[in-house]
UniProtKB/TrEMBL annotation:
It is an enzyme of class 3 (hydrolase). It catalyses: 6-phospho-D-glucono-1,5-lactone + H2O = 6-phospho-D-gluconate + H(+). Its EC number is 3.1.1.31. The keyword Hydrolase applies. NCBIfam families: pgl (TIGR01198). The lineage of its organism: Eukaryota, Viridiplantae, Streptophyta, Embryophyta, Tracheophyta. One of its GO terms (molecular function) is 6-phosphogluconolactonase activity. This is Probable 6-phosphogluconolactonase. Pathway: Carbohydrate degradation; pentose phosphate pathway; D-ribulose 5-phosphate from D-glucose 6-phosphate (oxidative stage): step 2/3. One of its GO terms (biological process) is pentose-phosphate shunt.
Amino acid sequence: MGKLCEAPYSKTVDWAKWYIFWVDERVVAKNHADSNYKLAKDGLLSKVPIVPSHVHSINDTVSAEKAAEDYEFVIRQLVRTRVISVSDISDCPKFDLILLGMGPDGHVASLFPNHSILDENEEWVTFLTDSPKPPPERITFTLPVINSASNVSIVVTGSSKAEAVHSAIDDIGPDFPTLPAKMVQPTKGNLVWFLDKAAASKLDSAKFSE
Ligand SMILES: O=C1O[C@H](COP(=O)(O)O)[C@@H](O)[C@H](O)[C@H]1O
């Protein structure tokens, strides 16, 4: 994403075709240090000519429950008008690309290990008020939405995440709890992990290309 802010991409990418959504968001003001919107705005959106009306951030003035409901409503409208495609095997939106990070505990988006939110398969966007990682109030896409995307990338750096990378990618047998990151399995899409050497250091074998 950083590269896209630089020449030649900043000029050659057809930014008018880009629509931006947040897979998960912390329910804090948009200028708060914990805001995922702020992170994306400072790092990318303020540096490229994305159409402002194509940037769909959450309503930060309401409760987590209402923010999730509002966000799903917006996405449903865009599916109805065919701005977002729809999956042909579920009624879920089919995003072109879902870009995820992963925490040292194996969480992706705001889908945390052993949380009941992992079983949510009715809603497209749901909320939690007890996130084990602060801040506690968050909204998140659900697994069925993530797994309906055309492409999913998980980008992980640092040795603190090496154990979780190993558990999520390697075959570690049935006796271990399944991490949220391992539940990311696009039904008809591609999944690509991007790891630095430290994050890849506990993988069983060289399943990756440098
Ligand atoms: O809270 C979150 O954490 C993960 C990854 O966290 P990191 O600080 O270890 O990079 C992130 O991917 C997720 O979207 C976010 O809300």
